[in-house]
Amino acid sequence: HAATVPVALSASLHRQAWRSLLSAYIFISASQRDLLGGLRLPPDRVFVRYNLIPGHSGPRMARTPTVVYAGRLDEAKGVRLLMAGWDCYRGKSDKPGLSLVIAGGGPLEGEVAAWASARPSVEMVGQLSSGRCAELISHARAVLLPSAWEETFGLVAVETMAAGVPPIAAAHGSFTELITPGVDGVLFRPGDPAALALAIADVETNPERYEVYGDQARKTYEQRFDPQRSVEELLGIYRFAITHPA
Fold this sequence. Notes:
Elements lengths: L1 E3 H4 L6 H5 L4 E4 L2 H6 L10 E3 L17 E5 L8 H13 L7 E5 L5 H9 L4 E5 L3 H9 L3 E4 L9 H8 L4 E4 L4 H4 L7 E3 L4 H13 L1 H18 L2 H17 L3
Parallel strand pairs: 1-2, 2-3, 4-5, 4-7, 5-6, 7-8, 8-9
């Protein structure tokens, strides 16, 4: 049998017992595989397959001078870093600059709302449907992913790339394998508000550059995260598990 590792390893089974039952181990990123390297799984039975992300249909949308954060409003997602980075960016800009749109909800929602209410450059839109969120992202110049924890798969990063919009992400976890900085997105030093502020300022100063990044982000999605390719990879792993039983 093939099993996705977080599920397969959640049961309180003895190591040798579950090893004798499983023929393949599926990780959703190389980052997740490496984090669980201490399990010493048989390398020939370990596979990396990214989550399936549906593409965006329709023409490319006109960009507005906005950057977007879409996700949970909690500490792990780097929301306090987002606020500090935005204040750092705005504190060094004497122009109208960019606007920040925040979509989502979570335990820090009240704190973020109070912060946003004192800043005309920030708009909170709450939790959105998947379609409305995709539309919001498609009009942005970039999407911010300041996660404090090492994301095992950056879902929003790939959804952003599918929309032809470049992600700006903390340089750790799976982001470092999903994004090629200076090609289809930007990586900044994790936990550093000043580094995030510099990345945002670059979006303001060089909008044409981010148009190019966006075009390449879409190509990256089509080359690496295409749904049909994802299905074929999964079927290949299942075929392996059937023909190479544990």
